[in-house]
Amino acid sequence: MLLANAEAWPGFDTTVDLLKGGEAGIPAMVAGIAKVEREARVRSVGYGGWPNMLGEMEFDAGVMDGTTRDVGAVGAVPATLPVSALAYEVMRHLPHVMLTGAGARRFATERGFAVDEVLHPDSKRVWWEKLEQQMTPQQRAAFPDIPLAPLSTAITDPERVRDTTVFLARDAGANLGAVTSTSGWAWKYPGRLGDSPIPGAGFYADSRFGAAACTHTGEMTMRCGTSRSIVLALRLGHSLEDAVKLAVEELAELKSGFLAGVVIHAMDAQGNHQVVNYRCDEEIRYWYWDERMDKAELRVAARINP
Ligand code: ASP
Questions:
Q1: For ligand 1, is residue 164 a contact (CB within 6 Å)?
Q2: Distance, CA 84 to ligand 1 centroid (Å)?
């Protein structure tokens, strides 16, 4: 069984084919997500994504094996694709769970990842155009040696905040797993991590109970531990529907800070799944496949209000 968000289209079938062939869930998902990360037409993940305020790409990714609860994650990684594969390398070759920034890049070199050109020319153009509009002539003349925080609020554009790619799978051995990858928010403050590399927030998996992953406003799911909430609720005996509802209630209880839409993708160990759209204006779609189906389907996420 495979569940992923709409951005997954370049790699979804790759993962399905590997799962059909009996491949374990994590390597099957990492192989599929690598295609998403390298696809320039996916304007939110990997090469096609958006840079931070300084015009630098910083990627985040996470991998979780629901059977062992092993996790590998990387954050704010420069010049590297595919970062989901790098997160998997962290899981397999280090005693750590998460690496960030320069250390993550150093480890990437040790593991044979090339130093990639990762800024799409169109992303560079749009990044500068928008930044330029927001800056005074004095700020423009001194850029980048200016305080960036005042620009942060002005420039965060919910329309371009989205998106991440998330994959959740149940493989032939009934192991659940989660893999995520993103370039994070466009024009984010340098060094900002979203929820995608944070276990419990952007993703979580426990083969005995279920798995979940989130897209959109990581600033909310990090505060609520949304993915972990869902899996814990399943452990405590709630149905998948109730577990997701509980997580949405927690998001709705937030009254301060940056508040916007969140999309939750979730499955339980019995093979049920749910994808819900909380507060996103646009229609949210997701990919779904299970062993009873000839091919994957693009479905519409249900809107949910607490
Ligand atoms: N959740 C991601 C983040 O906060 C962004 C997204 O999915 O749109 O970095």
A1: yes
A2: 15
State the closest ligand 1 atom to the C-alpha of 215, by its place in the atom list counted from 1: 7
**Torsion sign over Cα 136, 140, 142, 143:** positive
For 233-254, the pLDDT digits (tens) are 999 999 999 999 999 999 999 9
Identify whether the C-beta of residue 181 lies closer than 8 Å to the C-beta of residue 84: yes
Per annotation, catalytic residue among 164, 165, 182, 221: 164
For residue 5 and ligand 1, the question of a CB distance below 6 A is answered with no
pLDDT band at 44 (very low <50, low <70, confident <90, very high): confident
Other beta carbons less than 10 A from residue 242's beta carbon: 14
For residue 122, the CA-to-ligand 1 centroid distance in Å is: 20
Is residue 164 among the annotated active site residues? yes
Q: Any idea which fold 2-303 has?
A: Glutamine Phosphoribosylpyrophosphate, subunit 1, domain 1 (3.60.20)
pLDDT digits (tens, 9 = 90+) for 264-286: 999 999 999 999 999 999 999 99
**Is any ligand 1 atom within 6 A of the Cβ of residue 49?**
no
* Backbone phi, psi, residue 52, to 5°: -80, -175
Tens of pLDDT, residue by residue over 158-186, are: 555 567 899 999 999 999 999 999 998 88
37 contacts 82 by C-beta, under 8 angstroms:
yes
